[in-house]
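Figure-free illustration: sequence to structure, shown twice.
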Amino acid sequence: MARTKTEAALAEAEREHAGDPVRAELLARARRFKSSWLELAESLSSLRKGGQWKHWGHASFDEYAKKELHLRQETVDKLTGSFLFLQKRAPEVLARDGVGRPIPSYQSVDFLRRAEEREGAPAEAVTEIHRRVIDEAASLPSLARKYKEVVFPLDDDERRERDSAAIRAAARRLHELLDGTEAVPKRLAGEVRTAIERLIEALPEEESEAA
């Protein structure tokens, strides 16, 4: 199987730092973390607390993770946050081998963690999310589809912005498809494109446009 540039860079760095077991092992776990995220999350949590990255020439833990492990800060925060959450709230998951009992993804655990921390979240929904993540290792998409609006409801402005963005994207796509197509009479296509342009103009401006 062909390796990505990131995987190749991590493998090369692992060889380069073979003399430093802790550093090399973190690089190895970064390569494997999609299938064994608990290993990487455990090491990152320990490293963030211990501060070895200082001895490796990095100004901060986040800089180390980004430059050497090719991990975004958001990913690192979700990994470590999910691991620490499991340690506290569901330590039995950490003992699973991933075969006899499935291990939930860090994205799903992060969703559960945020749901439990959400002030005012319906208790029944949070309990159900906990069961589905911990017992069933439910995927993030399935959780988001059923519970996102329940636990993380959008306010009116956020919902309006979301809907406007979706309509704008669909309108622009249809405008592009009608441009030069022979599937629709040219006159009709022109009329629809004009209507689409009016629709887009009527939508609230995008933030970048407003600036």
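We now fold a second protein in the same way, so the two outputs can be compared directly.
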Amino acid sequence: MKTLKDAFTHTLQDIYYAENQLVKAIPKTAKAVGSAALKKALSEHAKETKMQIEILDKVFASIGQKPSGEKCDAIEGLIKETESIIEEASGTALDAAVLAACQAIEHYEIARYGSLREWAKTLKLSEAHDLIGQILDQEKAANSKLTNLAVEEINA
């Protein structure tokens, strides 16, 4: 990468890969937890993630590129960490630790989408900026839901 446009494209491919991996991982995670509210939140986010991939397809189209992913080591590690928690924890600890791992994933996504949105603005990619902003808002809302769930139910 030598230019901001290169960084934008690379990061877009990175998050595209990440979202596609999460579509596979979230249902497995939802099955593993005990809390009905957490299961529901994860299931809803899985649906939202599929819609986000469709939005990312539009972002790629807006910059004249075919949607493609590039392996994202960060998401691989976060998914692996979540899988380890599922194997090692049980009961209340399982739900609390999985929820925390899910928030780590949300924070990663918020950081990526925040950078992408601002880079799109700088690069004058207004359609990409608006589309990425939609996803960023969804990720922030998902994180807020998880925080509320932790405070109101899981951590109690």
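Summary for the second example: The CA atoms of residues 67 and 125 lie 16 Å apart.
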